[in-house]
Amino acid sequence: MTTTALITVGRGRSRGLRGASGKQLVYVAIGVVLLVVMLFPVYWMINASLQPSGNTLSAGLFPTNPSWAGYEKAISDQGHNLITSLIVSAGAVIVSLGIAAPAAYALAQFRYRWITGALLAILIAQMIPGIVIANALYAAYNDLGLLNTYVGLIVADASHSVPFAIIVMRAFMQNIHPSILEAARVDGAGQFRTFWSIALPVSKNAIITAGLFAFLFAWSDFLFALTLTTTSDIRPVTLGIYQYLGTQVSNRSAVMATAVLSSLPAIILLLIAQKYIAAGAMGGSVK
Question: Residue 96 and residue 216: Cα distance in Å, rounded?
Fold first, then answer.
């Protein structure tokens, strides 16, 4: 190849690189704009929670004179509701994983004719509107005395997250290599021991993913909280914020401070478990 040809090829490549860099910059700019648009409500929530006057309509773009009075009132009024949400969400995670993990293992590893029908039933259960389940649970809870109880809310929230958890963990457990399970059985392990000692540790990413989403489902639940609680003794923070709006119209900083506090657990858990979520959402694999 002549020197002229080499120069021509080099110029073509440099133009291609400049073109690619230009496209990448456009994509990055679009991504940044979309991110700013999506995160601006979160920023405004934090900004409004720090306004000293409590009036968010006259708030500036930045809290030049921040005040923590809204957070003090939010903790005083809504602290009990935050603890209630934590108890209910943690209980829903335990119940959901306790039911979904063995069910997902059975649906992934056993070979029975009824498994297809069971999967169809799980998918149908996932698509049932929450208001239908809430109305049915209210009638049942009223007869069983489970209204305004932690157990009632935990079971209700778990019923919403169990189908999703089964689907996520089954997809992961299907990829467990059969030789691993067969080796455990050759060593004398039964089905439960194989499930507990082999399948669960290998499926850690899927379990964390399912557990996190179960927590988020329960933490953000409003429908079950509104339907299955009639007193202020047991009231999740979502319902507390809803009822807060009618009494704190002139003090929006307390409302926004409650919203910020209720967002912290979800944000912290997502930051801690993001790598497990990415791995669990991919379906899982073993070497």
Answer: 12
pTM: 0.82
What Å distances lie between residue 92 and 17, 107, 214, CA to CA? 52, 22, 7
Question: What sign has the CA pseudo-torsion 41, 46, 47, 48?
Answer: positive
Under DSSP, is residue 18 helix (H, G, I), strand (E, B) or coil?
helix
Which one, of 82, 103, 73, 8, lies nearest residue 255 by Cα? 73
Do residues 168 and 279 touch, judged by C-beta distance below 8 A? no
52: exposed, middle or buried (Cβ count in 10 Å: 0-12, 13-18, 19+): middle
Quote the CA–CA distance of 143 and 137 in Å, as a whole number: 10
Model pLDDT for residues 151-191, shown as the tens digit of each residue: 999 999 999 899 999 998 998 888 888 888 888 888 888 88
CA pair distance 89, 211, nearest whole angstrom: 10
